[in-house]
């Protein structure tokens, strides 16, 4: 189901020049964000826009992305606080999964990952 949140996200990306006016015109023409399902034309328009946008951090569209597939890299201290490390979250995963860290935090030994879906927040509004 398309939603107002998805519509807002697509408008946000378009208004920040993340995909073309042509792709946006197709989304505007073919996508009914209130409909329970997407039409084939809408899905194709969304795919086109998605391929133009590429691989981005949806929470910070201008930030570099982490291309490092090695999640087991050792945690290291950055040389400068001004340096943004797009792989920082993978370092956090490695750190929080270390047995000695979980023991020090008195946490039940488990495989930790951000946004794992283990906790389910039920009172979140559908739009903000």
TrEMBL record:
Classification via Gene3D superfamilies: 6.10.250.940, alpha/beta hydrolase
GO cellular component: vacuole
Annotated Pfam families: Peptidase_S10 (PF00450)
Any one GO molecular function term: serine-type carboxypeptidase activity
GO BP terms: proteolysis
Record-stated family: Belongs to the peptidase S10 family.
Transmembrane stretches, start-end: none
Organism: Opuntia streptacantha
Coiled coil ranges: none
SUPFAM superfamilies hit by this protein: alpha/beta-Hydrolases
Residues in the signal sequence: none
UniProt xrefs under InterPro entries: AB_hydrolase_fold (IPR029058), Peptidase_S10 (IPR001563)
Protein name: Uncharacterized protein
């Amino acid at each position: 189901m398309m939603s107002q949140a998805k519509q807002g996200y697509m408008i946000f990306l378009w208004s920040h020049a993340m995909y073309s006016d042509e792709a946006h015109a197709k989304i505007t023409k073919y996508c009914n964000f209130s409909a329970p399902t997407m039409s084939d034309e809408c899905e194709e328009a969304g795919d086109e826009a998605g391929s133009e946008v590429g691989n981005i951090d949806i929470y910070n569209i201008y930030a570099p992305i982490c291309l490092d597939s090695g999640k087991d890299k050792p945690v290291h201290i950055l040389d400068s606080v001004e340096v943004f490390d797009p792989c920082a979250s993978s370092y956090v995963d490695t750190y929080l999964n270390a047995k000695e860290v979980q023991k020090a935090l008195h946490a039940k030994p488990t495989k930790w990952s951000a946004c794992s879906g283990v906790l389910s927040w039920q009172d979140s509004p559908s739009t903000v």
